[in-house]
Amino acid sequence: MSQSKREQVISHLRYVRQELREMHQGVLDDGLLPEPGEIRGVMAQMEALHELLDGKTKNKSKDLE
User: Fold this and answer.
1) What region does 31 belong to: left with phi over 0, alpha with psi -120 to 50, or beta?
2) Neighbouring residues of 48: CB distance < 8 A, sequence distance ≥ 6
3) Could you tell me the mean pLDDT of each successive run of 10 residues in the chain, 65 residues long?
4) Are 45 and 15 in contact (CB under 8 A)?
5) Helix (H/G/I), strand (E/B), else coil: 55
6) Alpha carbons within 13 A on the beta-carbon side of 62
């Protein structure tokens, strides 16, 4: 894996981990589930990370269908 790709992966993982920690802490402290927008944001970051690791874009996978 190239150095810049590795740095991108590390950056995505840090962001996702931080967001998940904050959501978990909110559940523990307040007993409230996170807002749907927060969950969508983390899922979008996870999708971007998956695409980065997989080396594909959404457009390429749609072209195959």
Assistant:
1) left
2) 12
3) 84 92 93 92 91 70 48
4) yes
5) coil
6) 3
Nearest Cα neighbor of 11 from 49, 58, 41 is 49
Q: What is the pLDDT of residue 21?
A: 94
The rounded distance, in Å, linking the Cα atoms of 6 and 47 is: 16
> What size, in residues, is the chain?
65
Domain boundaries, the chain: 3-64
pTM score of the predicted model: 0.69
SS (H, E, C) 1-37: CCHHHHHHHHHHHHHHHHHHHHHHHHHHHHCCCCCHH
In one-letter notation, the amino acid at residue 15 is Y
Q: What is the pLDDT of residue 57?
A: 55
